[in-house]
Amino acid sequence: MPSSLPPIHAEFLRRACDAVARDGRLSALLIGGSYVHGCLDENSDLDFVIVVEEDSFAQVMAFRTVFADTLGELVSAFTGEHVGEPRLLICLFGPPLLHVDLKFVLPSDLDNQIERRTILFARNPEAIEKRVRNGSVAWPNRSSDWFEARAWIWLHYASTKLARGELYEAIGMLAFFREQVLGPLLHRRSGQNQRGVRRLEAMGLDGQARLAATIACHDAGSVRDAITAAIDCYLELRADDPPSKPTSGMPELLVDLIDRGEPSHAGAHRTREPESAA
């Protein structure tokens, strides 16, 4: 728990506690994320878990945006289906702007948690504390076989988009690959939970700038170099805990594809050379 909070965060915590306490359908308010890891600063989000009485859950879920609007000036909000979490309401409040996640759960959901959260309010503190204390805590880390089954398909996708001249698409896939594969493996190497590319710089997990080499500009040669760097980086990190069955033919087949592929629009975006230079 942080020893002190930025004023905007402290004020929002107070309002959130008051709002949950006033609503009889809600039994507890918990917080996780940067708050419990001791790294909350003025740029941090607030990650709340709101425990809802079982007989009120459907009603609360139907009107959760209305509830969020009682917490402050709600700029915008949307639900979290895109991250596989429909119980999540992702909110932006302000001014001043503050990102707040509100996850609505049943008491039984506390039996399985991804982190040990702090209880900010509870109508029955003993029951909630017992549930939180006794619940299992496990971050959804991926296995080596999970990475191996996906890595070459995703890298192949980026390579075919390079060959077609769809550089924005290839660049987007490289960013996705860093988030889903390379970042988590760098966290794994340091013995941390696999949190994508979060706080890699602050934690010094990429001291050799491996990921920087996978960032491309809108240039075919740059994209090709970035894909190659992503392949090399994955192979190095994969060696920490090799998959049970490495993918046959990789990386040779993919490297051959990249070497043979010439983007059909590779020069379309480049500044034309003066004719006198020919």
From TrEMBL:
InterPro entries xrefs: NT_sf, Polymerase_NTP_transf_dom
Pfam families: NTP_transf_2
Membrane spanning residue stretches: none
Location of the Polymerase nucleotidyl transferase domain: 21-57
Cross-referenced SUPFAM superfamilies: Nucleotidyltransferase
Stretches the record annotates as Disordered: 259-278
Protein name (database record): Nucleotidyltransferase domain-containing protein
Natural source organism: Bosea rubneri
Classification lineage: Bacteria, Pseudomonadati, Pseudomonadota, Alphaproteobacteria, Hyphomicrobiales
